[in-house]
Amino acid sequence: MIDFNTRLKKLKDRRQGTKELVLLEKGFNSWDSGDYRIQESYEKLTEGSGVRYAIGAMAAVEPRSTQISIDEGNRVAETLINMLKTVGINASQRMQGSVALDIHIEGHSDVDMLILCEDTVLVQTPKLDGSSCYSNDQRPMVDIVAELRRTSELKLTSRYYEANVDCTNSKSIALEGGSLKRKIDIVPSCWYYTHDFQRSNQEKDAGVKIYNKKDHTLIGNFPFKHISRVNERDAQYSGNLKKVIRLLKNAVADMPDYKKTKAKALTSYDLAGIAYHMNNELNVPSYMSLALVEQTRSYLLRLQSSELYRNTLMVPDDTRKIFDSSSKSEALNILAKEVEDLTFSIFKELRPLSQVYDSNVVKSKVI
Predict the structure, then answer these.
(1) Which of 66, 148, 221, 337 could lock 188 by a disulfide, CB 3.0 to 4.6 Å apart?
(2) How many CA atoms does the CB half-sphere of 303 hold within 13 Å?
């Protein structure tokens, strides 16, 4: 059986920070016995611990904490952009990742900020309007973004001297500590104006190329298409897609390490893709959220049983298959068993005397 009391504690610590961290942030002594963290709605339920955990695992992180993450990411990015202007580099900022989609599961989540070259962009050719491409800067784009990366490292190290500015990562510059309320990842990159973007002129169709410092290469990415499609499908199903994504992410986070090591072959991006393809199975009333746990269990079982179907699934931006390695199939088996154990444990709470699992008990529970 799952130890839900331990999981509930870990869930609260993830969502709001540990009691000790909150005391420190509020300026109280560490020996203060009070817990100044707010009590969230899932904690106030009179249901069993398994039900409370499932509802909490699907819930968005407290809005104030998310807003702090957004504000801090934008503040650091804006500061960097202003410093870059002093040396003649024009750039813009965009947020990507879990915080941008509100599918993060930690109150103190890392914030991914793209810093994009504005003086020169990459354009998919031939241009659809028939015009030619020209730039005053004739260097290869990889060298232009490499300069953005080097200059960003110098500026950030100088400006945030009290923080830990880690420039060793291949794709990002990580800032943590000092005056920063969150860990910020700065990702130097450039725009890639695809044919789709040239047709629509909508940012969701624009790609980006992220600089890989290790290999001196540019890596293609479509973060805005991913964000747009997940948001659209989530709205279609009244917020249920993001609930399932958070549920899957929390399920992996709370696994024992020997399981988690293998389960993490399915990235956050992959988990979002799995939930994205549940489609009409996400169509449950908001007051019956536990049905999503059963629907997820059933869907993961379907993925396990049909390799043919599993291998057709693409990530939301259509750039690759979700299950593109054998390690991800093994991770699916671990994840499916974890969600199954969660669902069966909830059933036993709701029907403690029943010996045979009945999915309708979980699906029909009103919360």
Answers:
(1) 148
(2) 28
